[in-house]
Fold this sequence. Notes:
Blueprint: H1 15-53, H2 57-66, E1 74-75, H3 76-86, H4 91-95, H5 105-119, E2 123-127, E3 130-133, H6 135-142, H7 150-153, H8 157-166, H9 192-197
Amino acid sequence: MRLYTKNKRPGVMFENDLFYFSLLTNHYTLLIIFLIFAKLSCKASFNINSFNMIPDYQSFMLPVLEALRDQQTHSNSEIKEYVAQKFELTPEDRRELLPSQTMSIFDNRVAWAKTYLLKAGLAMSPKRAYVCITERGMGVLADKPERIDNKFLRQFPEFVEFSQYNKKKTAVSENGSPATNDITEQEEFKTPKEQLIT
């Protein structure tokens, strides 16, 4: 590289030239780093938003029960189709995977919503992968609840027993009494599978 400066010999890089050249190089380096960081940040943000744009499993509980309102036996696939249409989820939304990459977020949350309804006695499974509503479930729908969630389900003894068993821990408090086993507030919006992998 040949640089010509007034009153200086051609081909010689002087201290000022070197300083500005280094400054320019550093600016380009910082720009490249910034662009790489921005690209990675956008990708991470997209994944997080995709995860969060799908309603939590408790928000699926009422729609799952509503899918059984006709008192017919429905397959898991039929229930998922009903819930997806209810929330206007796209095929892309439904394909988003859990961080473990083993199951879609949507399928996981619908499955746990269904499981909790079964444990509360609002639905029953006459055979594998098929569900129907119970008299208790029809009574709940008749009351037209705005939402069904863990708090709502705790009015049913079967669900309380299930949640205590599901969260049972061997730890005990300082005074030797059993630790609290109920579903904690921190866990409210994550399915058990999500709690294990996040």
